[in-house]
Amino acid sequence: MISYRFRFVILALCIGLSSNALAACEVEEKPIPEIQAIRLESDLSRETSDSSLAFMDETDSGVPNYTIEQLLNDVGYDDFQGVVLVSEQDRIVYQSAKGRADVESGLRLDASTNFEVGRISGQVIAACIRHLIDDGLLSLDDSLSLYLPEYSYAERVTIRQLLNMSSGIPDYLDNTLAEPSFRDAVFVDALFSEKGVSAISEFAHFSVDLDAIIETLNVNGLLFEPGSSFLFSQTNYLLLAEVVQRVSGIPYVHYAQKNVLTPLGLEAAAFEQSSKTATPYVARDRIQAVMGPTNLLADAGLRMNVSDLLIWTFVVRDALKDWQNRALPVAGDDGIIPDDLAENDYRLYGVQWVDDSFMGMESEIGGFDCIQVFDAQRDIVILILSNRNSTEPLCEDMLQALLDHYSVDLDTES
Asked: What is the pLDDT of residue 37?
């Protein structure tokens, strides 16, 4: 873990984020229009990359540690395609890579494979905003109208409200494959129905033209008075990326790469597809289809491998540890996190509560499932990256098994 700690030092010196509060049917012989159909072969889904075993052979005492793998096997790990990593106290205690980065060519997944991390991309936008604040170029309580005056409701929304999801602005990705309920409804009959094919094609060519999006937002209005409630909306971070671009005078992706990703030594992280980027698939039962890369860039298009995502998660975790030198809010006896605005500035870092101990972000966008959760107090990190976005919630089941495991540990400690 020496390299990780070294990068933490780079973080503190460069941008100060830590200290600054930041199933099985056969494929028909006839071709499927516009997309490819691939049957999920069991021999592919059961393979584990040899190189992935290095981190999970033994515990510090030299005793084999299979607990985590047993937990995952109990919830259907054999059908998983992707990478899983668990870290405790800055030490990787489990890591595995299974299946193919590209099924057609047979390229296997490994720790260097890049995945689109979807909504986790917003955390980098939050870091860029923090960077601009530290440089005195904007303030959390600035009105959005200072930067996007063409948005009709900008005067009523602040930078802080965009960051902490209290703006009331509708999500521009509603009713697309980025919304699980919409995706499941589309694929309820068959993945390759006319409706399903259309949805895949539409999302692969989804327009992120800002002028068109703002025009739609102007018509749709706000869902609630800004600052009065919380609601996740991807639009918040799309607009924040535009703020970064306008304030800095350079494209957002260039600003993020230069001021956040590169200084941290995140060598694989990028906003463009490369030979190391896994092919994304959408799946139902044992049939999957190639999704193809999306046009989403700033707010959902970041690519990372599991190593870079781990380092990035450490960054966010440490920033939250130091958040205003205050203890993180915790769930009450009813399991509900207080919804008081003053107690929820942790949202400024692009994270949300997963349960009463773990925070992070879960994302299902463009054929990728990406889960990042961490317990900032006990220094536990769980990362699940998959290039098979399925209507069966395997990734969520795996996460819940791990959360239950650590919840038992927490109860024991208390």
From this structure: 38
Of 173, 194, 199, residue with least CA distance to 184: 199
Query: Is the pLDDT at 288 greater than 80, yes or no?
Result: yes
The angle, 0 to 180 degrees and rounded to 10, between the axes of the packed helices 121-134 and 234-248 is 40
339: CATH:
3.40.710.10
Domain count, the chain: 1
Domain membership of residue 251 as a residue range: 2-413
Those residues with Cβ within 8 angstroms of residue 92's Cβ, 6 or more apart along the chain or in another chain = 1, 55, 85, 86, 310
pLDDT, tens digit (0-9, with 9 covering 90-100), for 131-163: 999 899 999 999 999 999 999 999 999 999 999
The predicted-structure confidence for 200-255, as pLDDT tens digits, reads as follows 888 888 888 999 999 999 999 999 999 888 889 999 999 999 999 999 999 999 99
pTM: 0.81
